[in-house]
Specification:
The chain has 354 residues and is mainly α. The chain contains 15 helices and two strands. The chain has a two-stranded antiparallel ribbon. Helix 1 (3-18) runs parallel beside helix 12 (287-309). The longest helix has 29 residues, at 181-209. The relative contact order is 0.18.
């Protein structure tokens, strides 16, 4: 299974999560991603970090609700749950309040908003659990190799932190020392940070010894052509995207976007001459990889279509206070993301080499 297929699948689910604030659809997205992760993940440190992303999503949700209670919300509401003591603020802080009335409508709006962000974080965690970010490094073009190394190192930082934290907490429990609370957090967090710094220094030395960052000589004409194509392509992508988002630019948006993508890809191909490298056993896009990536893209496309056709169903209101309903065909579209669990079961369930 190509690593990029899992990342396309998971990030497409994240894009679908940004198209709706319906808690039933968001909960269905969370359930689908969790089922696929449990079915197909490998026995690696990155796979075990999925629980950490789930806890991070819960923390984001709690913080969003806390801010709605303490700082208030612009959402009007008539169902008052409690009234906190309000702190008077100076005149230059108009529009901001501390305390006051807490309504059910404001809490419900904060819940929907926080759940959307939490779902996006959990989808990123699913991508990290199903395919180690280091595997993506083999599939990047040569022009993006240095940037890809930086991104992969950053993404692999989280699972190593989780593994170090578990190891240190287990060691403290065996010694009869506290591993929870503020004291346990201080005694565990400092060694984890120290280990991360030592690992980063060792990784930098190992990469320098293996020739990372060294580039080949290219002619000035190739460098100028590469810069012109890449910069012009990115500007074309921005202009084409802006045209597609506006009513006046609907005629020229798509051609400019396609031309910009073609120019940017040509620039990346020319820029790859500066970083010649070989691939050992490169991952191939087989039919199962295409099916996994296609199922996620289909979910994102169908939810985007549903958001434009029936926005009320995908964005339930909170004023008046009503229970959200589950739209049938968007929910069926989300279930398409279960395809990897049946089409590729156990493809990553073996222990991968570290």
């Amino acid at each position: 299974m190509h690593a990029g297929a899992w990342w396309v699948w998971a990030l497409a689910l994240g894009v679908g999560a940004t198209r709706t604030s319906n808690p039933l659809l968001l909960g269905l997205l969370l359930a689908v991603s969790a089922y696929v992760v449990v079915t197909c993940r490998a026995n690696t440190p990155s796979a075990r970090s999925y629980a950490a992303f789930v806890r991070l999503g819960l923390a984001v949700l709690v913080i969003r609700l806390f801010f709605a209670v303490v700082l208030g919300s612009p959402i009007p509401g008539s169902h008052v749950l409690l009234t906190l003591p309000e702190v008077p603020l100076p005149h230059w802080a108009q529009g901001i309040r501390l305390g006051g009335r807490v309504t059910a409508e404001a809490l419900l709006f904060a819940l929907y908003d926080g759940l959307k962000l939490a779902t996006l974080l959990v989808c990123v965690g699913a991508a990290n659990a199903l395919a180690a970010p280091a595997r993506l490094l083999k599939s990047l073009p040569g022009a993006l190799y240095e940037m890809g190394v930086a991104v992969v190192v950053a993404l692999t930082f989280a699972p190593h932190l989780v593994a170090d934290g578990r190891r240190l907490r287990a060691a403290r429990r065996l010694r009869g020392r506290p591993d929870r609370g503020l004291r346990g957090l201080v005694h565990v967090g400092l060694p984890v940070l120290e280990g991360a710094l030592e690992r980063s220094v060792a990784l930098a030395a190992a990469m320098d010894a293996r020739g990372y960052g060294r580039t080949a000589e290219v002619t000035p004409a190739v460098r100028r052509t590469t810069a012109a194509l890449t910069l012009g392509g990115l500007l074309g992508v921005c202009a084409g995207t802006y045209g597609l988002l506006t009513a006046a630019g609907g005629t020229y948006g798509l051609p400019v976007l396609l031309a910009g993508l073609a120019a940017a890809l040509a620039g990346l191909r020319l820029g790859g001459r500066r970083s010649p490298r070989t691939r050992y056993r490169p991952d191939a896009w087989n039919p199962r990889s295409c099916l996994v990536a296609g199922s996620g893209v289909a979910v994102a496309a169908l939810l985007s279509l549903a958001a434009s056709r029936d926005p009320d169903a995908l964005h339930p209101g909170v004023v008046p206070l009503v229970a959200p309903a589950l739209p049938l065909w968007p929910a069926a579209a989300v279930l398409l993301a279960l395809a990897p669990a049946f089409a590729a079961p156990g493809t990553t369930a073996r222990k991968e080499p570290s």
